[in-house]
Design brief:
The complex is a heterodimer of chains A (471) and B (80).
Chain A: E1 14-18, E2 23-25, H1 26-40, E3 45-50, H2 54-65, E4 69-74, H3 79-89, E5 93-97, E6 108-113, E7 116-120, E8 133-138, E9 148-152, H4 153-166, H5 184-196, E10 200-202, H6 210-218, E11 223-226, H7 228-236, E12 249-252, H8 259-271, E13 275-281, E14 288-291, E15 306-307, E16 312-316, E17 330-335, E18 342-344, E19 359-368, E20 374-379, E21 383-386, E22 389-392, H9 393-404, E23 409-413, E24 416-421, H10 427-438, E25 445-449, H11 463-466
Parallel strand pairs in A: 1-10, 3-4, 3-5, 4-8, 11-12, 12-13, 24-25
Antiparallel strand pairs in A: 1-2, 5-7, 6-7, 8-9, 9-18, 13-14, 14-15, 16-17, 17-19, 19-20, 21-22, 23-24
Chain B: H1 3-15, H2 35-49, H3 55-60, H4 64-71
Helix pairs in contact in B: 1-2
Classes of the chains: A alpha/beta (471), B mainly alpha (80).
Chain lengths: 471, 80
């Protein structure tokens, strides 16, 4: 039995089905996992460049279930950012799509399966890793930050179990992928469904593509997940008029959905006997921390719900004491076995143990109502969610400074980032640079030229002063 | 402006590209034409021609050329 799943237990049930209709059963997945892990033969670090393809998932399964530590990255990660990460963490192997091997001519191919290849990097440096470390996730996939979240085996299995419990998953489920697997929300769907022996439908096609919906219907998908922007797109597609008899559950996470859309989808779900489940989470908590039980979706619209099974929430007020009164704002603190070990910022950090001891200060400001349902009302940390992707604004400023040697200040609201610079001549190039680095849709970024960046006496940027330019 | 010009303009403005990039342009060929960009493109086309596109046509519009074929259908009746 592996560290996370007992794959063989589900025998000949399909574990993965791709767009071409190709299936891999749990037994086959297990056999492939043992083969691949056997080729490596010892505990080490692997970078996996992910796609929603069978090779990508089977590699991940093999690694984490056999004590090999993967860092999951997007296969679209910008090359310079990837090179930087390789230098920082010096992995022993890469697990990449076969069509990308040309980018790594100095590495040796040692195994191939399902369109993916295992390359031995040949790097000399090997950083020791803590025994509990199971998985590494980038804190900000889009800016390729070297800062990683260290997740333990317990974190991953506990969170998957909790999700399977509150979503009442069983082996008849057939979730279809709408999110990348290197994104913890997308990964949590795979992790939780493998626990119950369900079949995951894999595609990189999006909601705006006919092939996605053909695959959905042909394979009778029962659920999907979406970030707020996904629901805006579904609304635009007049989703509420689509006929999808196999659909049972829609989940939402990755930022706060507008109360209007929350209400609309909750009402649609209630009418069609579908569960609409709004959830709350972060990669620092493996994936999920809160969920709104579907039967409360209409009544408690705008709420992200209650703690997941095994977890608890506390709000810490300005006086550093727990908030006891409803509708009082405090910083949301989560406690549970899925709170990750901590961060890593360099190879030497991989040996570090548990630094959070089951308690996470989320950086989100929240309130609860008289029934104990939680509402996110703001954010303490400097990041935005752009189409569900976390973009660290300080990181963005740092990247711009590194590239152009100029000072920049980024600010904004979710899905709309504003980058302030003081020199007109950089406005176009800075924007192009940011778009290329993040690989996010250009419409999210605007550059605004101002006379000077507002600062206080000690030289700290006054980001709140910038809000008047875009609010 | 002719319908062809209006059609081109929707692509050019939405994706911030030039006219010479239009021929043969397909979904996901450029960063700007992802699902987010697609939604903006549909909104721009609906505005330009004062139409409401069906779900099936929205998801079928996978290239610059395909879009013209779809808009020429009787329900939208855009002549190029």
């Amino acid at each position: 039995m592996g560290r996370i799943w007992d794959l063989d237990e589900h025998g000949n049930a399909p574990a993965l089905i791709d767009e071409s209709g190709f299936r891999v059963t749990y037994s086959e997945l297990n056999a492939e996992a043992e083969l691949l892990a056997g080729k490596i033969g010892h505990r080490c670090l692997v970078f996996a460049l992910c796609r929603n393809e069978i090779g990508s998932v089977s590699g991940y399964t093999a690694f984490i279930n056999n004590g090999i530590v993967p860092l999951l990255l997007s296969s679209h990660l910008e090359d310079a950012l990837l090179r930087e990460l390789l230098k920082t963490y010096s992995p022993e192997y890469l697990w990449i799509p076969k069509d990308m091997t040309g980018g790594f001519p100095c590495m040796t191919e040692v195994h191939e399966s399902y369109g993916y290849v295992l390359l031995k990097t040949g790097y000399d440096v090997k950083y020791p890793m803590h025994d509990e470390l199971g998985l590494l996730i980038s804190t900000s996939g889009s800016t390729g930050s070297p800062k990683l979240v260290r997740q333990s085996y317990t974190n991953v299995s506990e969170n998957a179990r909790s999700i399977a419990e509150y979503l009442r998953l069983d082996d008849t489920e057939r979730p279809i992928t709408t999110l990348p697997m290197n994104y913890v929300y997308g990964l949590s769907i795979i992790n939780s469904h493998f626990l119950v022996g369900a079949a995951v439908l894999l595609t990189d096609k999006g909601l705006m593509q006919k092939e996605f919906w053909n695959f959905f219907r042909e394979q009778n998908a029962t659920s999907f997940g979406g970030v707020p922007y996904t629901y805006e797109m579904l609304d635009r597609l007049r989703f509420c008029r689509m006929d999808l008899p196999s659909l049972r559950t829609m989940t939402q996470a990755g930022g706060k959905i507008t109360p209007e859309l929350h209400e609309k989808f909750a009402a649609y779900a209630a009418e069609h006997n579908i569960n609409f489940v709004v959830m709350y989470g972060a990669s620092e908590a493996t994936a999920r921390m809160g969920y709104l039980p579907p039967e409360k979706a209409v009544e408690k619209r705008g709420s992200m719900g209650i703690p997941i099974p095994g977890g608890s929430f506390t709000l810490i007020g300005d006086d550093d004491k727990p908030v006891t009164e409803p509708y009082t704002t405090g910083e949301l603190v989560y406690e549970g076995k899925n709170v990750t070990l901590g961060y890593a910022e360099c190879g030497e950090d991989l040996i570090r143990g548990d630094e959070r001891h089951g308690r996470l200060e989320t950086g989100d400001m929240a309130q609860f109502d008289e029934d104990g349902f939680y509402y996110i009302v703001g954010r303490r940390k400097r990041f935005l969610k752009i189409y569900g992707n976390r973009v660290n604004l300080d990181e963005l400023d740092r990247l711009i400074k590194g590239e152009f040697g100029i000072e920049a200040a980024s600010s904004g609201v979710d899905d709309h980032a504003y980058i302030f610079v003081t020199d007109e001549k950089y406005s176009g190039t800075v924007r192009d640079f940011v778009i290329n680095k993040t690989k996010l849709n250009p419409s999210a970024f605007r550059v605004i030229v101002i006379g000077e960046i507002p600062k206080n006496d000690s030289g700290k940027t006054l980001y709140t002063e910038l809000a008047k330019y875009y609010e | 402006m002719s319908n062809r010009e209006k059609y081109d303009q929707a692509f050019i403005e939405t994706f911030e590209i030039t006219k010479d990039q239009l021929a043969g342009l397909k979904y996901q060929d450029i960063t700007a034409w992802d699902s987010v960009g697609h939604m903006s493109l549909i909104a721009a086309l609906e505005d330009a021609f004062d139409i409401m596109m069906d779900t099936d046509d929205i998801i079928d519009l996978s290239s610059y050329e395909k879009g013209m074929e779809l808009l020429a259908k009787p329900e939208y009746n855009v002549e190029f």
